[in-house]
Each structure stands twice: as C-alpha cells, then as structure tokens.
Amino acid sequence: MKTITVGLAALLLSTAASFAADAWKEAEVNGTKIYTDANGMTLYTYDKDEKGKTNCYDKCATNWPPLKAEAGAKADDEWSVVDRTDGTKMWAYDGKPVYTFIKDKKAGDVAGDGVGEVWHIVKAN
C-alpha cells in the first residue's frame, strides 16, 4: 500500500509541474526570444499591474485575456500564480501578470506590443 501511495504522490507532483510547463513556451519573433501561451500566442504585461496583483478586469480582460493557471498550479522559477478577484488564477512572469491580446490572430502576431504605451511583450531571458 505504501508503494501505491508514494507512486500516486509522485504522479500528482509531476502532473502539477506539467501544468506549468504546458502553460507557456519560448518562441522567437523578429529575432527576439519571447514567451507565448501553449498555442504560440504572444504574452504581454500591463504597466498598471503590480507585482503579484492584476488590475485588468471587465473590458480590459476581454481585450487582454489573462493566461489562466489551473487550480493546483505551482510557481516555477520566474513564473508564479496570481489570484484574481473572481476566484480564478493566472500566471505571472517575474511577478507581473501575463495576458494574450484579442487582436493577435495567429501565433507570432505582436499587435499588442506598445498599445497605449502600457502593454509590452514578455521577453525570455
């Protein structure tokens, strides 16, 4: 029985880690390494957010959908999880919540970069 319990615990831990690994990935756009969601859509940060706190709700969140984190998601290096006021969770890079942009239609689009001088592509180190 102990072997089954240990095996189950290892499976659960590896599954939680895979949620993180599956949420974002690195890509190269115009010679710059950036982060995208699992579908290749560019990720952005918002200057009006604070570290660990999102200020993008309602119409903002419609235009800039948050990168959702699964309920059991755990921090992974520079990536952390932020609680939203609606009870959902989202990913943050270096403490800043990250979003996609509704006007990006295909992987590699970067239409959101510089919008309102407050939206910026999340660049990979």
Key traits:
globular, 4-stranded antiparallel sheet, disordered N terminus, 125 residues
Helix and strand sequence: HEEEHEEEEE
| Average of pLDDT | 87
Residue stretches low in confidence (pLDDT < 50, at least 5 long) are 1-18
N-to-C terminal Cα separation, in Å?
44 Å
Number of helices: 2
Count of beta strands: 8
> Cα-atom Rg, whole angstroms?
16 Å
What is the helix fraction of residues, given as a range? 10-25%
Given helix and strand content, the structural type is alpha+beta
Largest sheet: 4 strands, antiparallel
Strand content: 25-35%
- Gross geometry: globular
Organism: Rhizobium loti (Mesorhizobium loti)
Protein name: Putative lipoprotein with Yx(FWY)xxD motif
GO biological process, one term: alkane catabolic process
Keywords: Lipoprotein, Signal
TL;DR?
Residues 1-20 form the signal peptide. The protein has helices at 2-23, 59-63; strands at 24-29, 32-37, 44-46, 68-69, 79-83, 89-93, 96-97, 119-121.
Plain-language structure description:
It holds the Pfam family Lipoprotein_15. Keywords: Lipoprotein, Signal. InterPro entries: Lipoprotein_repeat (IPR005297), UCP029720 (IPR014558). Residues 1-20 form the signal peptide. Helix content is 22%, strand content 26%. It contains two helices and eight strands. It is an alpha+beta fold. The longest helix is centred in the N-terminal third of the chain and has 22 residues, at 2-23. Mean pLDDT is 87; it is low at 1-18.
